[in-house]
Each structure stands twice: as C-alpha cells, then as structure tokens.
Inverse folding.
C-alpha cells in the first residue's frame, strides 16, 4: 500500500483543477451538441445510441441529458 509523505496540494490547486475539468467537460458538451445537430453520420450515430438506451430504466433521460452524460466521458480524439 502506498503512503503519502505529506500534503500533496492545496485548496487553490484543487480549485484550479476543478475549473479546468469543468472547462473540458463544457467543451465536450458543445462539441457533441454541434455534432448531433449537424446532418450526417455523427447525428445518425447519436440518434441510434440514444434510441437504443433503456428508457425503462430512467424515462426522464432526454437528448440534452444524454449529451451531458456523454460529455463527462468524451474523448474528441476517438472520432
């Protein structure tokens, strides 16, 4: 088991990191939103993904919520 030899960061570092993560997630959200609103293969793929999601598990999921969830795990380099 690894141990820490002391304090590794501070509150400022954590806030800076959190702001960065929020900016990255927002970028993914905007990118996915743009892809899903433009006619073409990306829009069709997203509609297929969204249409195959199990609505019986959570019927309140709409397109925007699905985009938010996707942007939390997005990787723009894989497209």
């Amino acid at each position: 088991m690894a141990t820490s030899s002391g304090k590794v960061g501070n509150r400022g570092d954590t806030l800076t990191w959190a702001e960065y993560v929020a900016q990255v997630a927002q970028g993914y959200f905007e990118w996915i939103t743009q892809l899903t609103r433009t006619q073409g293969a990306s829009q069709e793929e997203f509609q297929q993904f969204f249409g195959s999601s199990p609505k019986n598990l959570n019927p309140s999921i709409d397109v925007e919520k699905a985009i938010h969830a996707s942007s939390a795990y997005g990787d723009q380099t894989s497209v």
